């Protein structure tokens, strides 16, 4: 099932970002009360308790189940890849999409292992974005189309959405977005991505700085940051995360690139990511700094730097544990256990 995006230009995207649903306060209060009655010392389940209450609030059910889990992998190609900023050639994007469709990638295994389905959305792979050191990466029409594709990929009936991506060159784009939104330059935000050597790393920093300089006049507006420095899969993730908010579907964010996409929404409207949690902190060096900037504490830290949604998929396990305890445990009264 899909729902059509409620926008066809940038102003309508701004309107969708200005008018965000909030969690169900009654369900939140009831989940909080239930949490206090469960057979454990107060707060003994640590962040699992916060997670379950957060989830209950967004789905509007104080004793929820976790079902109909949707993983979406967005793929896009980047003109800036021609600048030698990746350890891999650009054709790997389309080849990996074929691998996703055949079920052979890490994300297929992880989403299946945690009971989620895998949807693949490729965004005009034969038409890479413009190299952002020479021109804006996308036209307004391209940006709106990519965000709409992201919005429309979300199943309005999903109980959870996990957003991931694939795109050779996209850690360069994500670093540039992070620099433009959060301050600093290539030095602060660029890492090795899929594994560039020292020369590649230096080139990548210069490329980010060149993009920031070329588009300096446009970068005070977060959606223009996304248009000038982003990519279609990054814009699509932003659209999907925004759609999930409007459908009140909780989201688990993935790594460096996904967090850059999410940062755009948070920069437009503080609180726009309240329906999301950070699944993990990636081994891409500046990811932890980006998470701090958006006020998110990652659930996992496993040294992953794969993307695809892999860290978010693994974090489904943590959320499942949280909800199983919250909804399945006995209360002190039910179990006849004495309170403290
Ligand atoms: O998610 C992350 O934190 C992450 C960190 C490093 C690399 N990646 C993946 O690697 C690809 C981009 O790497 P690169 O070197 O081509 O920019 C892209 O397909 C991402 O999914 C992803
Ligand atoms: C093989 C390969 C798989 C990936 N998955 C996400 N990004 C990737 C980059 C490469 C190079």
How would the blueprint of this fold be written?
Layout: H1 10-18, H2 25-37, H3 47-59, E1 69-75, H4 92-102, H5 106-113, E2 116-122, H6 140-153, E3 160-166, H7 170-182, H8 186-189, H9 198-214, H10 222-229, H11 232-246, E4 251-253, H12 256-268, E5 276-278, H13 287-293, H14 310-328, H15 332-335
Parallel strand pairs: 1-2, 1-3, 3-4, 4-5
Helix pairs in contact: 2-3, 3-14, 6-11, 7-9, 7-10, 7-12, 10-12, 11-12, 12-13
Organism: Aliiruegeria lutimaris
Catalytic activity: 5,6-dimethylbenzimidazole + nicotinate beta-D-ribonucleotide = alpha-ribazole 5'-phosphate + nicotinate + H(+)
Pfam families: DBI_PRT (PF02277)
Poorly predicted spans:
none
Elements, N to C (H/E): HHHEHHEHEHHHHHEHEHHH
**Looking at this structure, what is the CATH superfamily?**
Nicotinate-nucleotide-dimethylbenzimidazole phosphoribosyltransferase (CobT), large domain
Radius of gyration: 20 Å
Kindly, what is the distance between the CA atoms of the first and last residues, rounded to a whole number of angstroms?
48 Å
Protein name: Nicotinate-nucleotide--dimethylbenzimidazole phosphoribosyltransferase
Pathway: Nucleoside biosynthesis; alpha-ribazole biosynthesis; alpha-ribazole from 5,6-dimethylbenzimidazole: step 1/2
Function: Catalyzes the synthesis of alpha-ribazole-5'-phosphate from nicotinate mononucleotide (NAMN) and 5,6-dimethylbenzimidazole (DMB).
Enzyme class: transferase
């Amino acid at each position: 099932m899909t729902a059509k995006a409620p926008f066809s230009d940038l102003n309508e995207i701004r309107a969708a970002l200005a008018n965000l649903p909030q969690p169900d306060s009654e369900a939140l209060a009831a989940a909080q009360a239930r949490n206090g009655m469960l057979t454990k010392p107060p707060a003994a389940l640590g962040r699992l308790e916060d997670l379950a209450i957060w989830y209950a609030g967004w789905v509007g059910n104080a004793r929820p189940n976790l079902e109909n889990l949707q993983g979406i992998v967005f793929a896009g190609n980047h003109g800036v890849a021609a600048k030698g900023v990746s350890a891999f050639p650009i054709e790997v994007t389309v080849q990996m999409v074929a691998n996703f469709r055949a079920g052979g990638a890490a994300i297929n295994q992880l989403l299946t292992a945690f009971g989620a389905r895998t949807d693949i959305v490729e965004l005009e792979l034969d038409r890479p974005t413009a190299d952002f050191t020479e021109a804006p990466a996308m036209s307004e029409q391209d940006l709106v189309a990519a965000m709409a594709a992201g919005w429309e990929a979300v199943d309005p009936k999903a109980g959870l959405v996990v957003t991931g991506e694939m795109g050779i060159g996209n850690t360069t784009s994500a670093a540039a977005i992070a620099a433009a939104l959060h301050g600093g330059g290539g030095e602060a935000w660029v890492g090795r991505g899929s594994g560039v050597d020292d020369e590649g790393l230096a080139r990548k920093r210069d490329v980010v700085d060149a993009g920031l300089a070329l588009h300096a006049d446009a970068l005070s507006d977060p959606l223009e940051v996304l248009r000038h420095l982003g990519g279609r899969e990054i814009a699509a993730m932003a659209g999907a995360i925004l759609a999930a908010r409007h459908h009140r579907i909780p989201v688990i964010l993935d790594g460096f690139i996904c967090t850059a996409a999410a940062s755009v929404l948070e920069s437009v409207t503080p609180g726009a990511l309240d329906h999301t949690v950070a699944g993990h902190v990636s081994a891409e060096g500046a990811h932890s700094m980006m998470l701090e900037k958006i006020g998110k504490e990652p659930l996992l830290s496993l040294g992953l730097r794969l993307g695809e949604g892999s860290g978010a998929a693994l974090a489904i396990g943590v959320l499942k544990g949280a909800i199983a305890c919250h909804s399945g445990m006995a209360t002190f009264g039910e179990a006849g256990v004495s309170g403290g």
